[in-house]
Amino acid sequence: MVEVEVCANSVRSVIAAQRAGANRVELCVNLSEGGLTPFLSMIEKSLSMTDIEVNVLVRPRSGDFLYDDIDFDLMKKDIEWCGKLGCSGVVFGILTRDGSIDKMRCAELVTMASRYNMSVTFHRAFDHVLDVEKALFDVIELGCKRILTPGGFPTAVDGVNTIKRLVDLSEDRIQIMPGGGITPQNVENLIIQTGVKAVHGSFLSPIESKMDYLNPNFSPESDFIQYYSDEKIIKKVVDIAAKF
C-alpha cells in the first residue's frame, strides 16, 4: 500500500489526517512561505490529541537553504525539543553555496535525530541542487529515510520524469516521496508512472470566519479565510493509494 503523508499546518489538520487514515503528518506553519518550524505548543498539542506519526519540519526561516551559524543552532535546538517530546521524525535540508548537499551539517542533525530514534526526511531543498544524481547518493549516505520532492518542478506532475528517475536510481535504499500539487484527480497516474511508495500533500480547503462583524476596509479573503487539511480530500487520496 502506498503511504499518504499530510502536510499539516495546524492541530486541526493533524486531527483530520488521522481521521482520514493517513500514515503520518509533516507538521509545519506558514505554508505560504514554503513551510516553517511549528510552535512548540502546536507540536505538544498534536502529540497529545492524536496517535498518528508526527514528523516536524525544521526550517528556521523562509528563503534559501544556505544557513548561517545562528540558523543552524536554532535547527539543532528544535530537533532536540522534538526528540524530547517524542516526535516520530524531523524534516530538514541544508545546502552549500554551490548547490550541493551540506553533508557535514546534515550529518550532525541526522546523528542528533538518531539519538531520539527519529527518522529523517530530506525536504524540498533537494529541488535546488546542482546535480540531482549526486545529491541523491549523498542523502542516501547520510542515512535519511526519505526525500520529499516534486522532481525539481513546482508540482510533482511536472516533475514526474525526474521522480521516476530518482526511484530507479535509489534502488529502494531510500523512499522517494513526491509532493506538490497532488490531488485525488492526479495521484493514481503519478503512482503508476513513478512507482513511488508514498505521496505527500496539504489537501487544503478554505474555512470562512465565524465572526459576526468583519471590517469592510479589509479583504475577507486575505484577512479572515483560513485553510486547513480537508478530511474528505485526504480520505479520497488514502483510498486511491490503498489500491497499490
TrEMBL record:
Question: Could you tell me the keywords of this UniProt record?
Answer: Cytoplasm
One cellular-component annotation, GO: cytoplasm
Q: Entry's InterPro entries?
A: CutC-like (IPR005627), CutC-like_dom_sf (IPR036822)
Top-level lineage group? Bacteria
Q: Can you name one GO molecular function term for this protein? A: copper ion binding
Pfam families the UniProt entry points to? CutC
Compartments annotated for it: namely: Cytoplasm
The record ties this protein, via PANTHER family, to:
COPPER HOMEOSTASIS PROTEIN CUTC, COPPER HOMEOSTASIS PROTEIN CUTC HOMOLOG
UniProt record similarity statement: Belongs to the CutC family.
What is this protein called in UniProt? PF03932 family protein CutC
Q: Which organism is it from?
A: Dysgonomonas macrotermitis
Q: What are the top taxonomic ranks of the organism?
A: Bacteria, Pseudomonadati, Bacteroidota, Bacteroidia, Bacteroidales
Encoding gene, per UniProt annotation: cutC
